[in-house]
Amino acid sequence: MATHLNTGGITSYLLILSKEQTKAGHEVYIWASAGERSGDFRPCSAGIVPDVPRCKSELSPNLWTQLPKLVSFLKKNPVDIIHCHTRVAQVLAAAAGFFVKTPYVSTAHMLYKKRLGRRLFPCWGKAVIAISRAMQEGLLEVFGRENLPLIEIVLNGIDIGALRARIDQTDREAVRKSYGYASNHLVVASMARLIPVKGAHLLVEAFAIARKKVPHMRLLLGGSGEDVYVQNLKRRVTELGLETDVLFLGNVTEIEKPLKATDIFVAPYVWEEAFGIAVLEAMIAGQAIIGAKSGSVPELLDHGRRGLLFEKGDVEALAELLIKLSEDVQLRKELGMAAMDGAEEYSSAHMGEGVQKVYEEVLKHRL
Fold first, then answer.
1. Model confidence pLDDT, tens digit, residues 82-100
2. What is the distance between the alpha carbons of residues 204 and 220, in angstroms, rounded to a whole number?
3. Rounded CA gap, 236 and 240, in Å?
């Protein structure tokens, strides 16, 4: 159960998990509002129920109109366990528990604040899956061990083989040419939603500093986001005189293309990132990565062994690392190889197996 099936981290997680569960012989239903990626779920689900409304508040009347539908669905279908991925899905599953005895678990996809609603109605279910060690630590710090059910760490995963195959089959020079890059250009990229907490504005400033010493450096920003923020980013790029040096790709579906075209990948996140799926994708591609010391990013980069780290928000430090990597081809290769090796810890198969163990624990003991 989630809120929608549009492009985003939760939708990607749902799709990967659904594929792994289907491979394992399980029957998967998806309960979420239809979105641009709904079609991707049809081969790996027994059915899609597009009825969770796109609302953020558990008090929304739109949410509660769906409760009778959920109860009816659970009574008619042989569902053993519900897996929730958003707050409104958790609340709806908890309310359904008054009428049916189907247990539910939650995956924590973001670092939470201890809001009143969460204190009064936790609605975590029988277990919580933390997608990283940083996520588990954040849950314990905010809510306390005594206010949480069983917490299990199941690292986020990707179908590494499939993504690596797509990257290997991509013509680097052809993609770079389509982006307007020459063979001597050094391409720096970031792939994330263009919203303030993802830090693209910091990367633009750092790039402007670094480019003064590395004139053949170019910046590629992939992702869509908040209109005002994107407009401000483009305005700042113009003010810096970098219009021809910064490429805004918009929403990217074929991520293998920018990954193959890139020389340095940057994760300039400002907030405490719960996981960082884009960082993992760059690791699989064997990129030299620079990441902010934010949430799980240091964990992914093995605290500097798989990529370079800087204090979040420090533009000068980021600029220095961009210059450093631009001048050291060997270091870029070494970091890229270390990142590629480290990515093996985060396979979709491992994720599917870990989630399955949580399900079995809940069903075995009815925790």
1. 999 998 899 999 999 999 9
2. 10
3. 6
Tell me the whole-structure pTM to 2 decimals.
0.85
Q: What are the residue boundaries of the structural domains of the chain, listed by start? A: 9-157+347-365, 160-345
- 357/177 Cα distance (integer angstroms): 47
CB 288 within 8 A of CB 263: yes
At residue 185, the pLDDT reads 97
Instruction: Specify whether domain 9-157+347-365 bears CATH 3.30.450.20.
Output: no
> CA nearest 74: which of 55, 52, 100, 48?
100
Q: Any idea which architecture 160-345 has in CATH?
A: 3-Layer(aba) Sandwich (3.40)
Name the phi and psi angles at 328, rounded to 5: -125, 90
Residues of the chain with pLDDT under 70: 52-56, 116-117, 366-367
CA torsion sign for 28, 19, 221, 270 is positive
